[in-house]
Write a structure and sequence with these properties.
about 1000 residues; alpha+beta; about 25% strand
Length: about 1000
């Protein structure tokens, strides 16, 4: 880090600097370099053209009081035109000027001096006792020094040199400048040349030969020969600079920096200042150029820059704070770490320093109680009793907090033992101080945590446990410490399970999951465990477990999963589970280019069993059928109960339909044996349908449809048949296609109706919400169920337009209801996963529809299904969060029909959970269903969500739901779905539905 010093920083008495005009020394050196003895620099008043001599060397003698007839001298031409050159015969051109004769002036060079805005402020004039050289070296040297002089003159003070432009190093700088000129010319690093445009002729100073490395500089006598030395990358830019100079209307130089390849094949970096020279008509006829070899200079700059970057990096990345104080203990420099310690940015220190004196007092870094100690040590350093001191102390952070530090102060002295500055090294000890407090807090948390904590060494031996461990496991600390954690093993998990945990812990330092363990009483319980490792290098030193007892949660969750995915009667997977497995099988087979078969079995005339016997007999038949099919099938086959009397197999590794038919016949053979039902035997047959992947379909829906069509054909043929799907059975597919076409037309023409089913508050009986349900009255086929055409809409790519239609119509009707005096009513609208995939990430399309009807977002609820939960990813969640942030509510529809999981509910920002009607069909008569429903309601409420129970059809169901504090009810008992005009009448007449 480099300081920037100003005049006020170093406290210079500027009046002393004016006693000696340091330009005298500069002009003396410049005159020696030009081999002349008369030269002056002056300021010129732009209004009166009065000349004020700043420094003048006359006939080798310094004389600032010389009087010059400015307007009658060649100097005036230089001032007017920017520069002037008279190569010879100067006295004969100005015969009336006796001073020229006294000075023996044969030639003249002059150049106007301008301020940064280009306004004239002065002139530099040189008188030569000889002709000017043909290479124009003198003019180019004058141009070089003019830029330096312009910086030293100020247009506001034309009678004296500006005080603020002088520094204590000015004499040395002026002297060094002229020495630099001499040295660079002597070394061949600086040369001049002229290019005569019309003649295409180049003339050089002798030093140019050194730059381009040739013994005969005259061989480069044309512009193209010079341009050929320039690197190809720089050549277009150099050519543009020369062309700009040729067409210039100004005497201002154009600087060009480029690389050349010398005639000896060496690369050099060249800086050229090009000056256009115009004739009396203003046409540029010559270009004068000063060229400098800056190769070594550039390399030095790069090295210096690299060294500076290294130094800055070291200072910036050092872990301690560094502060430099002057002898008066004013802050002059800080590193980034010190800024960070005290809560400042580096720019803050620069700004505060510019505003005034910057020290520890002005920043309020010290605490009053500590100032006396600091002062005592500093006074000892001032008295030369010590040169440094180290102590642990505190500073005040910018935010007022305490910063604990280890401070070392060292005085840096000059050869006379005077203090030049202090260097303060500050090490932040705040973290160590905080760690002591943190350890105390951690110990308290450890002892009072409700979660069990177990600490083990690398040999898996328990070395400490907290009180919660004793409570959960029943083992006291004395029982556990010294034993391995195997004392909690229940036998539920195999060795591979624990091996995988150990591998994960070693690799990722953490493992999370559920472990079934055994407590001291011998009872098995579920632990939600987080395992974390503590390592020294790559070697495991300790690991600890934090766990809680989640046995009850797991039991309830398992009940919900079983209810949602398994058939309660047979224990087989249900349709939902079968569809998921089928989808998985499709993906796997597609990746591996494999085939498989689906065998669909539908019991013939099963209803007659229930009618002639009883439901218990029918249940026994289904259970026995399940056992027979399981016995006949292979371990790799997947069997499910699809519906009441329908079963389905996924049969892998089937290569053709013939093989599938043979296997289906074997399965059909399980019905050859009679069933023993209620003291009598009964024979049952079954119709079987076969379909193959991928010949008959590549989706779950297509395969299930083709299998069902095959079963339908088997029944049509008289039952007890086995039919393989063929294209001859595709009439249903044709009808489906036609239905999709007609549905698209109905959506386009608005021929669909939106009905509304009330959702009733279970406390007040008021209609608080509505669910929008689309209906289709086909002109030829009559009423078509949503269960038929909505899946077709999803398959046919119409679900988005259908959803847009329903959303717009439902919002329109909700606005009518609000204006009719029911502003509290909210609208629930079903959204499919396909719709969620196609809207933008901010769900702005749906929000625009709501706002277009001037509805509050909070009056609309979007219902999503559990299948969407299963496919939930970051993009789905982003869209849901966008809706939530706008105020739209989210409901989970048909909860319990899919892969219900409390984990999904916990992660989803839902407001409402709608429990599927299958959960309440048997309430309140079925005690098991009652318990399951009670558990779901309690869990949903604990998650902060409301419960809507669907499918309420009996008063007993409603009473039970009200008793169990289900928030809302929906079902035919309360009201069927009805159109808007009937709904208005119904709401008006029924303030309370109960």
């Amino acid at each position: 880090m480099v300081e920037t010093l100003t005049l006020s920083d170093i406290n210079i008495d500027t009046t002393q600097l004016l006693e000696t005009n340091h330009l005298d020394l500069f002009l003396t050196n410049l005159a020696s370099l030009l081999r002349i003895d008369t030269i002056y620099v002056a300021t010129v008043c732009p209004q009166t053209f009065d000349l004020s001599i700043l420094a003048c060397l006359q006939q080798g003698v310094l004389d600032a009081d010389v009087v010059i007839d400015f307007k009658a001298m060649p100097c005036f031409a230089a001032y007017q035109h920017g520069y002037a050159e008279y190569e010879q015969d100067l006295v004969s051109r100005f015969p009336a000027q006796m001073q020229l004769q006294e000075w023996h002036a044969e030639a003249y060079l002059g150049i106007r001096l301008n301020d940064p805005c280009g306004r004239p402020i002065g002139i530099l004039s040189a008188f030569f006792p000889r002709k000017l050289s043909k290479h124009k070296l003198e003019l180019n040297l004058i141009r070089l020094v003019s830029g330096f002089l312009e910086r030293e003159l100020q247009p506001k003070q034309i009678n004296m040199l500006s005080v603020t432009a002088i520094t204590p190093d000015m004499p040395a700088e002026l002297s060094a400048y002229t020495l630099w000129l001499e040295d660079n010319i002597a070394k061949g690093l600086l040369s001049s040349w002229s290019y005569f445009i019309e003649q295409d002729r180049l003339e050089y100073s002798d030093s140019a030969a050194n730059i381009i490395e040739t013994d005969n500089v005259k061989e480069i006598n044309q512009f193209d020969a010079l341009l050929a030395l320039v690197d190809n990358v720089d050549k277009p830019r150099v050519l543009r600079n020369f062309q700009s100079a040729m067409t210039s209307n100004s005497t201002t130089s154009i600087r060009s920096i480029f690389n050349i390849t010398t005639l000896q094949g060496n690369s050099k970096r060249i800086q050229s200042d090009i000056y256009p020279i115009a004739d009396e008509e203003g046409k540029v006829y010559r270009l004068d150029c000063i060229s400098k070899d800056i190769t070594a200079e550039e390399l030095t700059k790069k090295r210096a820059s690299a060294q500076e970057r290294i130094l800055e990096t070291v200072l910036a990345t050092t872990p301690v704070g560094l502060i430099k104080l002057n002898a008066n203990r004013e802050i002059k420099w800080v590193n980034k770490q010190a800024c960070k310690m005290f809560g400042y940015q580096l720019e803050d220190f620069h700004r505060l320093r510019e505003q005034g004196t910057l020290n520890t007092r002005s920043l309020h870094l010290y605490f009053d109680d500590d100032k006396e100690q600091f002062e005592e040590y500093y006074q000892e350093i001032y008295a030369n009793k010590r040169n440094n001191f180290t102590l642990n102390t505190r500073y005040r952070h910018r935010d007022g907090s305490i910063l604990w530090t280890k401070l070392t102060v060292t005085a840096i002295r000059d050869d006379a033992n005077n203090i030049q500055y202090f260097m303060n090294t500050i090490q932040d000890l705040t973290e160590e101080q905080d760690n002591r407090q943190r350890l105390s807090i951690i110990e308290s948390v450890y002892r009072h945590s409700a979660e069990g904590i177990m600490l083990c060494d690398a040999n898996e031996k328990i070395i400490d446990v907290n009180p919660a461990f004793e409570t959960i496991t029943g083992y006291s600390a004395e029982d556990a410490i010294g034993r391995t954690h195997d004392l909690l093993r229940s036998g539920v998990h195999d060795e591979q399970f624990y091996h995988d945990i150990a591998e994960t812990l070693l690799k990722h330092n953490e493992w999370k999951g559920v472990i079934w363990s055994r407590n001291r009483a011998g009872e098995i319980f579920a632990q939600q465990v987080t395992l974390s490792s503590i390592k020294e290098g790559d070697k495991l030193k300790y690991f600890f477990a934090v766990f809680s007892d989640v046995t009850e949660d797991k039991k309830t969750e398992q009940q919900i999963i079983t209810q949602s995915n398994f058939d309660a009667l047979t224990g087989l997977p249900n349709r939902q589970y079968f569809s998921a497995e089928l989808r998985h099988m499709i993906d796997k087979s597609a990746r591996n280019d494999q085939k498989f078969a689906i065998i669909y079995i539908d019991l013939d005339d099963f209803k007659s069993v229930n009618n002639s016997e009883n439901f218990m007999a029918g249940d026994r038949l289904l259970k026995e059928t399940t056992e027979r099919l399981k016995y006949r099938s292979r371990d790799s086959d997947f069997l499910a109960r699809i519906d009441g009397d329908e079963f389905a197999f996924i049969i892998p590794d089937v290569v053709n339909k013939r093989q599938a038919e043979v296997y289906a016949k074997q399965l059909q053979g399980v019905f050859a044996q009679a069933y023993q039902l209620s003291n009598q035997q009964r024979y049952i047959t079954a119709s079987v349908g076969i379909t193959m992947y991928p010949e008959d379909g590549v989706s779950v829906e297509a395969l299930m449809q083709s299998a069902e069509q095959a079963v339908f054909e088997a029944k049509r043929k008289g039952r007890n048949q086995c039919v393989t799907f063929t294209q001859d059975l595709s009439d249903a597919a044709i009808l489906k296609h036609q239905t999709v076409v007609e549905l698209a037309e109905a959506i386009k023409r608005g021929n669909l109706d939106v009905y509304y089913q009330p959702i009733v508050d279970n406390v007040t009986g008021e209609i608080d919400k509505l669910e929008a349900l689309v209906r289709w009255q086909h002109p030829d086929r009559g009423f078509i169920s949503p269960a038929e055409f909505i899946p077709l809409a999803e398959e046919g790519g119409l679900i988005q337009s259908l959803g847009e239609y329903v959303l717009d119509q439902a919002c329109c009707d909700l606005k009518i209801l609000h204006e009719a005096g029911f502003p509290y009513i909210e609208m629930s609208i079903n959204r499919s996963s396909l719709e969620f995939k196609t809207i933008d990430m901010q769900a702005s399309e749906w929000l625009k529809v709501i706002s277009s009807h001037n509805l509050p977002y909070g009056s609309v609820t979007m219902e999503i299904t559990e299948s969407l939960l299963m496919d939930m990813d970051g993009q789905y969640m982003q869209r849901i969060n966008a809706l939530k942030q706008a105020g739209v509510k989210i409901a989970i529809d048909d909860f319990g029909t899919g892969y219900s999981s409390l984990n999904y509910l916990r992660s989803l920002p839902a407001d409402i959970v709608k429990i599927d009607r299958s959960f309440i069909i048997n309430i309140p008569e079925n005690q098991q269903d009652n318990l399951l429903l009670d558990g779901i309601i309690t869990i949903v409420h604990n998650l902060g969500m409301k419960v809507v129970t669907e499918g309420v059809e009996t008063q007993a169901q409603l009473s039970y739901l009200r008793e169990k504090q289900s928030d809302y009810s929906q079902g035919f008992l309360l009201c069927r779905p009805i159109p808007l005009h009937e709904l208005l009448e119904f709401i008006t007449q029924n303030k309370s539905v109960f």
